[in-house]
């Protein structure tokens, strides 16, 4: 009689399931409009991340995406492959991948920055490398600080 061994805690960790990863990328939205199409894509990703125990913080501003997402190593690798495969027209640029001890975000957070004076403070004052908001000109440290500053604000919305 052949018996199947139940997985031990160590065998469950063979693919890095016990390691949490933070991955941050920037992208230019050239494919999705700012209305229904974008809303559908965001809802799709909110569900996908929730189903795969990934948390995220996303800033949308002036056609750019700045997103940090956190989860297990296999989940983040799979999500990255899916993003590259399904959304290659946004040209995502990875700016940072780190192992982390704990998740920084809670759920699927989204902040849409507008040209308002309040939002301009986030985008331009301390983090941008020029007079216009362009995350491609920001260092990885500036981008991480930018995300932290945006989501420290209690007005951040959970999608």
3D architecture notes:
- The protein is an alpha+beta fold.
- The chain has a single domain, classed as Alpha-Beta Plaits.
- The protein has a 6-stranded mixed β-sheet with strand order 4-1-3-2-5-6.
- The N terminus and C terminus are likely disordered.
- This is BLUF domain-containing protein.
- The CATH architecture classification is 2-Layer Sandwich
Name the beta content range.
25-35%
Sheet with the most strands: spatial strand order? 4-1-3-2-5-6
Overall number of structural domains: 1
Structural class: alpha+beta
Instruction: State the name of the first-level CATH class.
Output: Alpha Beta
Unreliable residue runs = 2-6, 154-159
Task: Supply Rg.
Answer: 17 Å
How many alpha or pi helices?
4
Number of DSSP-assigned strands: 6
Distance between the first and last residues' Cα: 51 Å
Report the average pLDDT across residues.
Answer: 80
Tell me about the biggest sheet?
6 strands, mixed
CA-based shape: globular
Protein name: BLUF domain-containing protein
Organism: Psychrobacter saeujeotis
Domain BLUF: 20-111
InterPro entries: Acylphosphatase-like_dom_sf, BLUF_domain
Topology of this protein?
Elements: E1 20-28, H1 36-51, E2 55-61, E3 64-72, H2 73-86, E4 93-100, E5 108-112, H3 117-125, H4 140-152, E6 157-158
Parallel strand pairs: 2-5
Antiparallel strand pairs: 1-3, 1-4, 2-3, 5-6
């Amino acid at each position: 009689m052949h018996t199947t061994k139940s997985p031990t805690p160590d065998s469950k960790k063979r693919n890095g399931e016990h390691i949490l990863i933070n991955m941050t990328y920037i992208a230019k939205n050239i494919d999705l409009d700012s209305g229904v199409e974008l809303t559908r894509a965001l809802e799709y990703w909110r569900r996908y991340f929730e189903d795969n125990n990934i948390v995220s913080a996303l800033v949308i501003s002036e056609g750019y995406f700045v997103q940090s997402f956190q989860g297990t190593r296999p989940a983040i690798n799979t999500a990255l492959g899916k993003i590259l495969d399904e959304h290659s027209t946004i040209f995502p640029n990875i700016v940072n991948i780190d192992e982390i001890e704990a998740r920084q975000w809670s759920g699927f957070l989204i902040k849409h920055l507008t040209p308002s004076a309040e939002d301009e403070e986030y985008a331009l004052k301390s983090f941008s490398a020029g007079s216009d908001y362009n995350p491609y000109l920001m260092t990885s440290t500036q981008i991480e600080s930018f995300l932290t500053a945006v989501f420290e604000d209690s007005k951040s919305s959970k999608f």
